């Protein structure tokens, strides 16, 4: 495979960090963004470099237009190309809709949905045939199995529609767009031993949490040439939560 470059937003921890390492193993040079956690971001950079690939970490607030644009332009400045964009950074506001504030609504829309749109537009300035757009949605974009997740579910459902439209726009150029929809995955955002973990586990068919590498392996496949005929798809990796 020729030299390829992937950008993973929110790549300092959790699912994003696992995707960064998997794509590095696949031969991609890696750019990650992070919000605050420089130490964790630098650890991922070191781990990618230990795999023999190049890596940069970009501090960029995914909730702002400037941050979205900086993520793409700094990746291009570092590597001179962009082959795969993985929009992964996300937050999970939790609570009944009547208690949600306008600030919470704006924050989750900006990071979980609007960022994917702005970053896609910017990425397409550099992406060529064979390019890959991969959005990390959620099984909650398909189903809201318990109360308190309306804002989050709305942003993740929004990614599905966005992806279908983007796939239509870019199909003729040989660029694919897909959503990966995790179920409960053990991370800081959704700890396996957290207060809600026992309830969440029961919503899956497997009665278990998934691992970050379950998502990373799926992203790896979608980013590969073998997935060139998969586009506009929403791929559940959810232990059967939506079954
Ligand atoms: P984590 O909270 O473990 O990690 C979040 C990552 O996003 C970190 O790298 C963090 O950076 C970064 N980030 C947070 N806010 C911003 C911001 N404003 N700008 C840029 N980067 C930011 O999350 P997960 O790994 O669990 O989740 C990743 C994605 O997967 C999200 O989109 C989430 O909705 C989705 N998902 C997760 C599930 C789960 O069960 N874990 C289930 C379904 C979907 P920093 O280290 O600097 O804080």
TrEMBL record:
Group of enzyme by EC: oxidoreductase
UniProt family annotation: Belongs to the short-chain dehydrogenases/reductases (SDR) family.
Domain Ketoreductase: 4-183
Gene3D superfamilies for this protein: NAD(P)-binding Rossmann-like Domain
EC number: 1.1.1.-
Source organism of the structure: Gluconobacter oxydans (strain 621H)
Protein name stated in the entry: Putative oxidoreductase
Pfam families in the cross-refs: adh_short_C2
């Amino acid at each position: 495979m020729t030299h390829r470059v992937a950008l993973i937003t929110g790549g300092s921890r959790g699912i994003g960090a696992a995707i960064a390492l998997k794509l590095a193993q696949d031969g991609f040079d890696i750019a990650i963004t992070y919000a605050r956690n420089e130490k964790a971001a630098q650890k991922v950079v070191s781990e990618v470099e230990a795999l023999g690939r190049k890596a940069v970490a970009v501090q960029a607030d995914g909730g702002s237009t400037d941050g979205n644009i900086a993520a793409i332009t700094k990746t291009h400045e570092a590597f001179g190309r962009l082959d795969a964009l993985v929009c992964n950074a996300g937050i999970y506001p939790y609570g009944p809709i009547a208690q949600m504030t306008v600030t919470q609504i704006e924050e989750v829309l900006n990071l979980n949905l609007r960022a994917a749109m702005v970053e896609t537009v910017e990425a397409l300035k550099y992406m060529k045939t064979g390019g890959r757009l991969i959005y990390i949605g959620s099984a909650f974009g398909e189903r809201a199995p318990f109360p308190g997740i309306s804002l989050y579910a709305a942003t993740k459902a929004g990614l599905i529609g966005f992806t279908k439209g983007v796939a239509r726009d870019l199909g003729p150029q040989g660029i694919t767009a897909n959503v990966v929809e995790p179920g409960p995955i053990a991370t800081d955002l959704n700890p396996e031993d957290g207060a809600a973990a026992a309830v969440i586990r029961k919503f899956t068919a497997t009665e278990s949490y998934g691992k970050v590498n379950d998502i990373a392996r799926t992203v790896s496949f979608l980013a590969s040439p073998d997935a060139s005929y998969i586009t506009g798809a929403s791929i559940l990796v959810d232990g059967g939560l939506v079954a």
